[in-house]
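Work Package 3 (structural annotation) set out to generate three-dimensional models for the target panel prioritized at the project kickoff. During this period the team completed the workflow that converts sequence records into discrete structure tokens, so that structures can be stored uniformly alongside our sequence database. As a representative example, we reproduce one entry of 69 residues exactly as it appears in the project archive.
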Amino acid sequence: MADTNVGGRDRLVRALLAAVLTVVAISSLRNGKQKAGLLAGLGAVGLGFNATTCFCGLNQALGIDTTDE
């Protein structure tokens, strides 16, 4: 697996945003807004993955490392 590049406050913010997007996705899907629900769900999965694995491909491509925060 790749080196970690997400840590500290960045990891916490990603986890919180994943939780918020999960609520938005569920709410949207319940209200019949499939496109918004699916997009919010994909965002939640992506941010949750970043927070869990401490790795972000975009951070790697841009040379960003927040593990020392």
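The mean pLDDT is 95.
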